[in-house]
Write a structure and sequence with these properties.
Blueprint: H1 10-31, H2 38-62, H3 76-99, H4 107-134, H5 148-168, H6 177-201, H7 212-239, H8 261-286
Helix pairs in contact: 1-2, 1-4, 2-3, 3-4, 3-5, 5-6, 5-8, 6-7, 7-8
C-alpha cells in the first residue's frame, strides 16, 4: 500500500518554528549562567511552558488524537498559542531589562543572553503568526476562543496577571480604600474572564442556566465600567501629592536594577488603561457575534 506524504501547512511551519525558537531560548539562557531569582525563573518558565505546550499540540495533531482530547480542540490550540505569544513577549521585554541592561560581566554570558532574547522575540512572532492563521474570519463558524472576543479574553487575563505581579511586589494596594477597589476590579474581572476561557476550552458553556451570549455582553459592559473607575482612581491616589503620592520619578530609581517601585505604579496605571481599552473592544465585538447551536 503506497504511503501518502502530507505537505506541511503554514500553520505547521509556524508551530515548528515556535518549538525550535523556545527550545533555543531557554537552552541558551540556562547555559549562559542565569542568576538565581524569580525574574530569571519566570523567563525560563515562559519559554519552557510554551515549548512543552507546542510539542503537545503537535503530537496530538500528528497522531490524530484530537477527538480523544479531554478539551475542545476548536478552542485549545489557539488559546494556548495566544497565551504563549504573550508569555514570550513578556520574557522578551523582561529578560533584557533585568539581565542585559547595565550588564558589564563576561562577554560570553552577555552573548548568551542576547541570543536568548533574540530567539524569544522570534518565538513571540511565530506564535502571533499561528494566532493569525487560526483565528476565525468574518462569517466563519468557529470556536469562541478563535473569535476576536475570545482572543481578547486571553489578553484581559494576561494583563491582569501582570498587574497582580506589579501590585504585590511591593504591596501597593492597601494604602487607601479607593485603591483596594481597584484591586477588587482586577480580581473580579480576572476571575470571570478566566472562568469564561475555561468553560470554552472544556465545552461547558451549554451547562450554564442562562444564555451564554447575553452573559458575555452583560459582563463586557460591567467590566468596562469597572475598569473605567480603576483607570481614573489608580493614578489619582498613587501620583497626587494630596494622597501621599508623587508625580515625579524618585532619584533612587536611576540606579535601581529593573523596575523600581514607582515604575511599577506607572506600569499598573498603563496596564489598567490598556485593559480598559481591551474590554471596550471586547464589548464592541461581543455585540456582533452570532452564536450557532450545534
Amino acid at each position: 500500500m503506497p504511503l501518502v506524504v502530507l505537505k506541511p501547512s503554514r500553520l505547521m511551519w509556524a508551530r515548528l518554528a515556535a518549538l525550535v525558537f523556545t527550545c533555543v531560548a531557554f537552552s541558551v539562557a540556562s547555559h549562559g549562567g542565569l542568576p538565581a531569582g524569580g525574574t530569571a525563573d519566570w523567563c525560563v518558565f515562559c519559554w519552557a511552558f510554551s515549548f512543552a505546550g507546542t510539542l503537545l499540540v503537535l503530537l496530538v495533531e500528528l497522531l490524530g488524537l484530537q477527538s480523544r482530547a479531554p478539551v475542545s480542540w476548536n478552542n485549545f490550540p489557539i488559546t494556548f498559542a495566544c497565551y504563549a505569544a504573550l508569555l514570550c513577549l513578556s520574557a522578551s521585554i523582561i529578560f533584557p531589562l533585568y539581565f542585559l541592561k547595565g550588564y558589564f560581566g563576561q562577554d560570553e554570558v552577555r552573548d548568551h543572553r542576547i541570543v536568548a532574547t533574540v530567539f524569544s522575540c522570534l518565538a513571540a512572532v511565530a506564535y502571533f503568526v499561528e494566532v493569525c492563521l487560526t483565528r476565525a474570519r468574518p462569517g466563519e463558524v468557529a470556536g469562541y476562543m478563535a473569535t476576536v472576543p475570545g482572543l481578547l479574553k486571553v489578553c484581559e487575563t494576561f494583563v491582569a496577571s501582570v498587574i497582580f505581579v506589579f501590585v504585590s511586589d511591593p504591596v501597593s494596594y492597601d494604602s487607601h480604600s479607593a485603591v483596594k477597589w481597584c484591586m477588587a476590579v482586577y480580581c473580579i474581572c480576572f476571575v470571570i474572564s478566566a472562568a469564561i476561557v475555561v468553560l470554552c476550552i472544556g465545552e461547558c458553556t451549554g451547562c450554564l442556566p442562562f444564555p451564554f451570549a447575553r452573559f458575555l455582553s452583560a459582563y463586557a459592559l460591567l467590566a468596562v465600567l469597572m475598569y473605567l473607575t480603576a483607570t481614573i482612581i489608580w493614578p489619582v491616589f498613587k501620583f497626587d501629592s494630596r494622597y501621599s503620592g508623587s508625580s515625579r520619578r524618585p532619584d533612587y530609581c536611576r540606579n535601581s536594577h529593573g523596575l523600581c517601585p514607582w515604575d511599577k505604579l506607572v506600569a499598573v496605571a498603563v496596564l489598567t488603561a490598556l485593559n480598559f481599552l481591551i474590554y471596550l473592544a471586547d464589548l464592541a465585538y461581543s455585540a456582533r457575534l452570532v452564536f450557532v447551536t450545534a
